[in-house]
Structure formats: structure tokens, C-alpha cells
């Protein structure tokens, strides 16, 4: 009876251990690629991949663990977006309000080009003022001086 209980406990104990798969090897390039798309919450102007802060190191470890657990890079990014919001992404998604972040620079360049072209057109198409009329006395003086030159 004791042997049966021990065998049953051994089988139950080995079941979950056997069901767990060994963590797969994680490519550091893949960890760097995912981490470089995430904003460091301490530095805020650096990616998690480039930040020297302790928090960024912890975030890199989470990325590595999740990739090793078999999650895709998109799932890892979504994990951080769920925790921190879209702000955590260095490149905001191109939808909704954040679409303005992507369109505003192009609109500003377009408006600038239009303004420059209008100004250049205005400067080059200005009518040249007519020369001031010369009074007859001045005209006679110029004619005499031109005749005197050799």
C-alpha cells in the first residue's frame, strides 16, 4: 500500500515537471530589437535597450523571459503597452489621435513649401517701377554731355 501511494505521489510530482518544457534559447538580437522599441520609464528619451538604468535592465530581463517562454515580439510589446499604455512605445501606433504625430511634420513641411513658393513668386513677379520722368532741361544737358565725349 505504501509503495502504491509513493508511486502515485511520484507520478503526480513528475507529471507537472514533465509537462513543463525547457525554456527555449533566446536570441539576444531579438531581445535587443524588442527592447529598442520600448521607452525607458526612467530616462524617457532612451530605449530600454540603450538605457543604463536599473529599471531598463529589469525590463530587458522581462523581455528575455517572455521571449524564452515562447511569446512573440508582438505579444511582448503588447504586455508592456497593457501595463504602461501606448506611451511606452518609442514609435506610437499610426491610429487615432497619435496619427497626428505622424502627419503633423509632413503637413508642416507642405505648408512651409507653399509659403516659400508664394513668397518667391511674389518677389519675382513684382512689376518694376517705371523710371522717373526726366524734365526737358535735364534731357538737354545729358544730350550735350554725350556729344562732348570723344
Q: Give the overall shape.
A: rod-shaped
Task: Report on the biggest sheet.
Answer: none
- The CATH topology of the domain at 22-90 is Helicase, Ruva Protein, domain 3
Tell me the fraction of residues in β-strands, as a range: under 5%
CATH architectural designation of the domain at 22-90: Orthogonal Bundle
The DSSP helix count reads 6
Beta-strand segment tally: 0
Tell me the span between the first and last alpha carbons: 141 Å
Give Rg in angstroms: 38 Å
Helix content: 55-70%
Give me the CATH superfamily of the domain at 22-90.
Cytochrome C biogenesis protein
CATH top-level class of the domain at 22-90: Mainly Alpha
**What is the arithmetic mean of pLDDT?**
82
Which consecutive residue ranges, at least 5 long each, have pLDDT under 50?
4-10, 14-20
Q: Tell me the series of helices and strands, N- to C-terminal.
A: HHHHHH
Secondary-structure-based class equals mainly alpha
Explained architecture:
The chain is mainly alpha-helical. Among the domains are: 22-90, Cytochrome C biogenesis protein (Helicase, Ruva Protein, domain 3, Orthogonal Bundle), CATH 1.10.8; 94-121. The chain is 61% helix and 0% strand. It has six helices and no strands. Helix 2 (28-35) crosses helix 3. The radius of gyration is 38 Å and the shape is rod-shaped. Residues 4-10 and 14-20 have low confidence and may be disordered.
